[in-house]
Amino acid sequence: MARASGHERGKARAIFRWLAANVDYDVAALAAFSMPSAGPDDVLRRRRAVCQGFSDLFVALAQTAGLDAAAVSGYARGASYRVGEPYTEHDRHAWNAVKCEGRWMLIDPTWGAGHVDVRSSGYTRCFDPFWFFTPPEQFIHTHWPSDTRWQLLSRPMSQSEQEALPYYRSEWFTHGLSANHLHGHTITCTGSTEITIHAPDGVTVMGQLAEHNADGEPPWTLSQHDGSGWAVRVVTPSVGSHILRLYCMPAAAVAYTWCADLRITASHLASRPVPFPHQLAGFAQHRARLVSPVAGLLRSGDRVHFEVHCPAVADIAVIQGKEWTHLRRVGAAFSGDVRVKPGRLAVAACAATRRTTQRSYEFLLQYDVR
Fold first, then answer.
1. Residues 52-89: tens digit of each pLDDT
2. CATH code, 186-266
3. What residues does CATH 2.60.40.10 cover in the chain?
4. What does CATH list as the number for 278-369?
5. How far apart are the first and last CA of the chain?
6. Angle 100-102-108 from CA coordinates, rounded to 5°
7. Given this structure, which CATH class describes domain 6-165?
8. pLDDT tens-digit series, residues 14-42
């Protein structure tokens, strides 16, 4: 797509940025299904609006600045959307297109300003520049215009084609993630599957089953670095559909952000589902890869073979209470047999070349032994 002239682009960007800094999303009006006037004058006075208010005010300000802008309406994969399900009235949305240097560009000032928290139903103001002049081939993953001309794609998609796309959020694109083998939002399996997410160096990816991520729930996913990206293994705890929620974190960040949803559908279970061990912070940090045991529930008295590959550490130990078993190292692989005892069992790593104190170890994994 041709680049917009600096003058026109600067005007559009200034309006987009001003809306993000000065207008809040009206969560209370949305929850009450009582939408106030979306007229630009009313929004300017209240400094609060739902998406239609953001969209209409953008048009008014853009036209005042001499830009050609349009309000676009349709559906979007927002806070209430569930991947794999058809759009509902709750998914209605409005955004914009603006003409710069003779070409139409896509803008979503509402999403650029912040987001609604799904769990608390509160609003978080958080500027997201991704929604300014978003490439149409990325915008279509979340936005469906009622008038298909506003897709701005060389070959417009049908609604069924758009609904079948993976649900990639802005973080998926801004952090450079890709999954070339995924051609739709649903993966069918017989109780377990694995997907590979390609990621730039320094970006960590993890997955969770969205409906099974509460405290106390066993982990049904295992995410580990595989050289070129991240392999996310999934075990479905029951027959039916489950939402796999993917998170990512760049090296400079301190928390994961939600970047994508996929639907994992198990037609039947080939074997009894067994959860994975709990992954602790050090596992992803040290780019560890677990070979065995991948089952998070171990049987007391069994002699279990542990093998973890981790080139960035000097030692890995299996810890049961005060008993430490240091695994034998061959290259990047640490392995050894341990007779397990009832209770919690942890696997920890030491990055230092000399094992000074136990405090120099970081926990990688945690198992339950019964």
1. 999 999 999 999 999 999 999 999 998 789 999 999 98
2. 2.60.40.10
3. 186-266, 278-369
4. 2.60.40.10
5. 60
6. 40
7. alpha beta
8. 999 999 999 998 887 766 666 666 789 88
